[in-house]
Design goal:
221 residues, alpha/beta, Rossmann fold, 2 domains, 4-stranded parallel β-sheet, hydroxypyruvate reductase [NAD(P)H] activity, NAD binding, glyoxylate reductase (NADPH) activity
């Protein structure tokens, strides 16, 4: 077939819809459209644009295309019966239709950039997920539980996050491991001699320091 039409609707005298290049939304609506209108899929034809459009010049009344399709003037001259153009561009005329969705995506991108979520996802997928999370209470059994030997088990890709009481870890050993590059980084919310924090940690960009406020939220209080 020189020009393939999905579901022949000529007997119903329905207007033909020309699809130059399918925009992103087309795949979601294609099934609905083919049940209502004969679709002319120009991008699937081996013919040049002029030759493809010529037999349908007076029957095409609507066109679906990408907003970036060039040579609109030339196309419009070939379609004297055209009444409607549908694109994937909202532009400034869309009002508030996409405001919520656009705002959500903006916030999502911002959080991703600031929190490096995508980068962290790739990090985990590559098999580098050596993380020690310390959140237990301080008892005689847990005091100095995380020694240098424990920290070294996680190796140079290891990350320590700690919201538990300070003396649970051997803080000096952890600081030394960070300085020597024996572990990858640390996130610390509690310290062994608060409010004092080891000065060496202030010079490290692979350490995140928090002033003992993990649970200080409106929901907690």
């Amino acid at each position: 077939m020189e020009h393939e039409l999905y579901h022949q609707h000529h007997s119903l005298d329905l207007p033909q819809v020309l699809v130059l290049k399918p925009p992103a939304f087309f795949k979601y609506l294609e099934d609905q459209l083919v049940n209502k209108f004969p679709l002319l899929k120009a991008w699937e034809s081996p013919l040049s644009q002029d030759k493809f459009l010529k037999p349908h010049a007076h029957s095409v009344q609507a066109m679906i295309c990408l907003a970036c399709v060039s040579a609109y003037a030339a196309i419009l001259q070939l379609l004297p019966a055209l009444h409607l153009i549908v694109t994937d561009s909202a532009g400034l005329n869309a009002g508030n239709i996409f405001s919520k969705d656009g705002a959500e995506m903006t916030v999502g991108l911002l959080i991703d950039v600031l929190r490096k979520i995508s980068a962290a996802d790739q990090y985990v997928r590559q098999g580098h997920c050596d993380v020690l999370i310390i959140c237990c209470g301080l008892t005689d059994q847990t005091r100095n539980m995380v020694s240098k030997e424990v920290v070294m088990v996680f190796g140079k890709e290891g990350v320590i996050t700690k919201i538990g009481c300070g003396p649970i870890i051997d803080e000096k050993a952890v600081v030394r491991c960070l300085l020597d590059g024996e572990i990858n980084g640390a996130g610390l919310d509690v310290f062994g001699n608060e409010p004092n924090v080891p000065n060496e940690l202030f010079e490290l960009d692979n350490v995140v320091l928090s002033p003992h406020r993990a649970v200080f939220t409106e929901e907690s209080f």
